[in-house]
């Protein structure tokens, strides 16, 4: 009668494979291997060598499956990613419009190109109604800019001319006057926009009386 082979003679090989592949493998395989190793160790201590050898065979099967899974994952990672289809301009877009939603009783000065303006504003995507920008996200501090500068989109420079302090406006902005074909953070390409403004403070202005002369 031939004595069953002691599991210690096969254990080092299994452990070597475990150490080599363990760092890059999925957690579920690692847990299964640990459980199977534990069962083999318990069986060995109990003198159940056939059971211990059976568990070691399971270990080799798990390692083989693990290796196959890693090979597939490696091939998928190396495979070229399909190119994204280019976005095309929409068939229809909104028209640019300026709606004065609140006009103060007194208006002695209005904004002109070169005026420094402080405004509160909220910007939303027309398609979804999702807000993408707001001056209220900066501690309720008004946003300061120079009208006519490159610091803001064309729609602001056109739609906020001749605006009084305390006045509120809504601009409906087609994508051509907004962020165009590239978009920006929170704004996908070719997005029509809605802005609501309130002019809080105006400086470097022209008086309304002089502007009318």
UniProtKB/TrEMBL annotation:
It is an enzyme of class 5 (isomerase). Residues 114-203 form the PPIase FKBP-type domain. Its EC number is 5.2.1.8. SUPFAM superfamilies: FKBP-like. It catalyses: [protein]-peptidylproline (omega=180) = [protein]-peptidylproline (omega=0). One of its GO terms (molecular function) is peptidyl-prolyl cis-trans isomerase activity. Keywords: Isomerase, Rotamase. Pfam families: FKBP_C. InterPro entries: FKBP2/11, PPIase_dom_sf, PPIase_FKBP_dom. The keyword Manganese does not apply. GO terms for cellular component: endoplasmic reticulum. This is peptidylprolyl isomerase.
């Amino acid at each position: 009668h031939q004595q069953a082979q002691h599991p210690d003679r096969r254990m080092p090989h299994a452990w070597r494979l475990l150490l080599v592949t363990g760092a890059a493998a999925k957690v579920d395989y690692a847990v299964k291997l640990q459980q199977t190793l534990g069962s083999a160790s318990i069986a060995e201590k109990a003198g159940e060598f056939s059971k211990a050898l059976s568990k070691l065979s399971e270990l080799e099967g798990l390692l083989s499956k693990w290796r196959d899974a890693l090979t597939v994952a490696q091939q998928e990672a190396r495979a070229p990613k399909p190119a994204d289809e280019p976005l095309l301009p929409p068939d229809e877009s909104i028209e640019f419009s300026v709606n004065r939603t609140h006009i103060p009783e007194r208006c002695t000065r209005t904004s002109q190109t070169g005026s420094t303006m402080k405004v509160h504003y909220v910007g939303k995507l027309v398609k979804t109604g999702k807000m993408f920008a707001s001056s209220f996200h900066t501690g309720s501090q008004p946003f300061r800019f120079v009208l006519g500068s490159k610091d803001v989109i064309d729609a602001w420079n056109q739609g906020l001319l001749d605006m009084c302090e305390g006045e509120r406006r809504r601009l409906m902005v087609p994508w051509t006057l907004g962020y165009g074909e590239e978009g920006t953070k929170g704004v996908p390409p070719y997005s029509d926009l809605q802005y609501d403004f309130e002019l809080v403070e105006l400086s470097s202005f022209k008086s309304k009386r002089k502007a009318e002369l």
